[in-house]
Each structure stands twice: as C-alpha cells, then as structure tokens.
Design brief:
Keywords: ATP-binding, Ligase, Nucleotide-binding. With 362 residues, this protein is of the alpha+beta class. It is built from 15 helices and eleven strands. 49% of the residues lie in helices and 13% in strands. Strands 1, 2, 3, 4, 5, 8 and 9 form a seven-stranded antiparallel beta sheet that branches. Strands 6-7 form a two-stranded antiparallel sheet. It has a two-stranded antiparallel sheet with strand order 10-11.
Length: 362
C-alpha cells in the first residue's frame, strides 16, 4: 500500500481583528524548543505563513488524525504568542506580506519583483510513494487531466485584498504567476523529465530544480510524486479526501502504465483552460471533464473522478469513506462557499477570518 504524506501552509492571523501577522519566526522558535514539534513545522516565504508536514501514512484515517493534531499544535504554538492559525488559501483582508529573508528568498524577490511580493497564498501538497522514477514519470503523465478536479474540491480562496475575486480559488491564479508553474506536456521517460528540468534551470530564469513548480512532479527529497494543485482546505476532512483521491489517482495511473495503456495526450493549453475553469467555478458551476474537456456540472465531474479511482480505493479500503466525503463536500460546497456564506451573514471580512480560525481546528 502506497504511503501518503501531506504538507499544509497555514495563515497566521490576529485572533481578534483577523489581520495576518508576521510571527512565523517566533512560532518556529517555540516549535524547535519542543522535541515533539521539532521538524514538523517549517519556515515559508512569508512571515505570515506557517507550514507543517505529516509523517508518511498508509492508513488514511491516521493521516486525517495527524492533520488535525498538527493544526491544533500549530494553533497552540501560535496562541502562546498572541496569534491564531487559519486554513485560508489567501487572506480575505488587505495585507502587505513580510518576506522571510534568507539568500534564496532574497533571490526570488530580486528576480520576480512584484510577483514575489504578491505570493502570500497557502497551498496543500500531497506526496504519494512511487517505486521508481520510471513509475513516477508514468504517473505524472497520466494524472495531469484529473488535477483540476482536485483543485475544484479544495477551492478555498474567494477573497483577495479585501474584495471578492469572483473565483473560488484565486490562490491558484496567483500561484501561476511563477514562470515554472502549471501543467506540463507528456514526458514519456525519466530521462526526458530530468532533461527538461535541467534545461529550465540552465535558462537562469529559475534558481534550481526545486523551482520546477509543476502541478505534479517528482519530489526532490522523497521517493514520491508531489501533487501541488490544491488550496489549503478549510476543513481537515476535505484535506483527507484530497489525499485519498490523490493516492487513488497515483495507483490508478501506475496500473494503467503497467497494463500498457497510453496517457491521454491533452495539450498544455487545454489543461490550462481546465485549471482556470476549476479555479473560477469550484464546485458551484461547470467543470471540464478530464477525458473529453467539455463542460459538465461539477457534481458529475467529481463523480467521474471517484469512478476513475474506485478500483484503487476499493483495494485500500477507502472507497466507502471517500464516497461519504465526496457527498459531504458536494453538499457543503467547500471552503469558498463557507467563506462567502459567512460574509453574507456577517457583512465583515474580519469575522470571516475569525470564524475560519474555528473551522480550521474544528
């Protein structure tokens, strides 16, 4: 059974006003002082962000429980210095981000200018184990068309700098300002994959291979494929669902590869349209079906994803729980809908943030 690990980026906010607070260094210092937290939490580009990483898990219920524990521990550490954590993929309130300075982050600021200064967004990355680079590239090639559906399920960033953007996932639109971000063409082999990354680095436009910000890539650190499309999810249950579906996609793709089935050869330009539509619509309107790339109601496309991975989920005992979780997120509408409903009810983006602090731990 493939292991799965999750990385989540959380927003540090004032518990009363909801304003983002650049206190990650103080939170990390407290985490390092506690042996149980050492290595769990990491520095991010901005002082208003805090990242954590789970251990690799084979049992998805255990992974979900660890996500909850990490969120609660992040909240405890933040609370000790007078702030809170919110699983928001973008700050609803206006903010001038504070870059956490080191040589790497300074290079990003110098190289990309305003695009770096406007990257205060929080994502969720899912690492799924693969046996080799050959299997990993086969997976990367085969799961590309399904990734916009994961984005739509996770969508949790409707507000930006005090305004409703009209998007359910505006984070993904901001993230795509990086020149190396987004979907990729088919690679076909590990050699072509690594050659493409090396050629990108050789241009000087990106700093190193870590900046190959593909929607899905071979991990630089672990024997995994890293799926990088999701917003950080408001609810831990949704994060667990994204991780479950991600493992199902990887296992399904690996089985197709071993059976000699070729990947669907959608162009990057069409995959970009599918990602844009997912960011705009979330679960509220139509998505592009991953096989036909024609619009269908989001509910139908999410069900198509579940059908696509159902054999893989059944083999790990996750199918029934995934069906229940999909039903729940389709009823509730996801983080973007929750945020907009809070705004409609309270009339205050500050209250949206402070209520989402409670959702994050709930």
């Amino acid at each position: 059974m493939r292991t799965v690990g999750v990385e989540e980026e959380l927003l540090l906010v004032d518990p009363e006003s909801g304003d983002p607070r650049a206190l990650s260094a103080a939170v990390l210092a407290r985490a390092e002082a506690d042996e149980a937290d050492r290595g769990v939490f990491e520095k991010e580009l901005y002082g208003q962000m805090l990242e954590f990483a789970t251990h690799p898990r084979t049992d998805m219920a255990e992974l979900g429980a660890e996500i909850v524990r990490c969120r609660k521990e992040a909240a405890r550490l933040a609370g000790e210095i007078g702030c809170a954590v919110a699983a928001l993929a973008a700050s609803p309130l206006p903010v001038s981000p504070t870059i956490s300075m080191n040589r790497r982050y300074q290079w990003l600021a110098d190289q990309y200018g305003i695009a770096t200064r406007e990257q205060l967004v929080c994502g969720m990355h899912v690492h799924v184990a693969v046996e080799s680079d050959e299997e990993g590239v086969a997976v990367v090639d085969r799961i590309r068309p399904w990734l916009p559906v994961l984005l739509a399920i996770s969508a949790n960033s409707p507000f930006w700098q005090g305004e409703d953007t009209g998007y359910d996932s505006y984070r993904s639109r901001v993230w795509d300002r990086w020149p190396s971000a987004g979907p990729t063409e088919l690679f076909g082999s590990p050699e072509r994959y690594h050659r493409r990354v090396a050629d990108m680095v050789a241009t000087g436009v990106i700093l190193d291979a870590k900046m190959a910000y593909f929607d899905v890539r071979l991990s630089e650190r672990y024997p995994t494929v890293e799926i990088r499309v999701a917003d950080v999810c408001l609810h831990a249950e949704t994060a667990q669902l994204i991780a479950t579906l991600a493992r199902g996609l990887v296992e399904t793709a690996a089985r197709e590869w071993r059976a000699g089935r070729e990947p669907v050869d959608h162009s990057v330009s069409l995959l970009r349209l599918a990602a844009w539509q997912a960011a705009r619509a979330g679960l509220a309107r139509e998505l592009l079906h991953p096989v036909t790339l024609r619009p269908l109601p989001a509910r139908s496309v999410v069900r198509a994803l579940l059908d696509h991975v159902s054999d893989a989920l059944a083999s790990t005992g996750d199918l029934d729980r995934a069906r229940e979780a999909v039903d729940g997120v389709l009823r509730g509408g996801g983080g973007a809908r929750v945020q907009r409903e809070l705004m409609e009810r309270t009339g205050s983006l500050r209250k949206v943030v402070t209520e989402c602090v409670r959702h994050t731990q709930g």
